[in-house]
Amino acid sequence: xxxxxxxxxxxxxxxxxxxxxxxxxxxxxxxxxxxxxxxxxxxxxxxxxxxxxxxxxxxxxxxxxxxxxxxxxxxxxxxxxxxxxxxxxxxxxxxxxxxxxxxxxxxxxxxxxxxxxxxxxxxxxxxxxxxxxxxxxxxxxxxxxxxxxxxxxxxxxxxxxxxxxxxxxxxxxxxxxxxxxxxxxxxxxxxxxxxxxxxxxxxxxxxxxxxxxx
Length: 214
Ligand SMILES: C[S@@+](CC[C@H](N)C(=O)[O-])C[C@H]1O[C@@H](n2cnc3c(N)ncnc32)[C@H](O)[C@@H]1O
What we know:
By secondary structure, the protein is of the alpha/beta class. Helix content is 37%, strand content 28%. 40% of the residues are buried.
């Protein structure tokens, strides 16, 4: 990756971190209460590609958990084996979270996220299910299956967070997730979003957070 791309990606991740804080701000207490009870906090990153956001997600959960010990575990899944191998090489394995005795562990699987229930080893009861740049426009039926599976992996008071590149695609995803049993807590436009060459497309342009409808 060139120096320019690396620096853009790091700036995107810093903005994503701010957006995660922003969308969780209204009900952070509920999330903190859930995380405080968990020895192992679990996150699932669906359609993660090379999962550049792995450290942002584990650090964000560690910050919300706010304890000196415990484990944050992130599992990423994508159909593209090459990206998953890159993610595993870069972020896979267990590390200590700096300045604490807490640990973070990342693992990556190649697989079809519309068939997550075929991955029984994943279990369910996730604290966070995340989808960066969900791709509803690239096959609505598949993505509705993916959203459905994502919701089924959420524990009680777990949260689903999605980000989108485009306004219309985000709107369609919001509608689909709500139809499938998600309750929208908040959706935010990212005021710092970085424009991409395609008109109307930008990085983490919108970020939304859901819980399962009760
Ligand atoms: C727009 S890209 C986003 C990738 C990454 N999350 C990011 O933000 O850079 C959409 C991703 O969805 C993945 N994808 C598409 N269909 C999938 C499926 N059925 N199961 C798992 N991943 C899928 C693609 O391989 C691709 O990595």
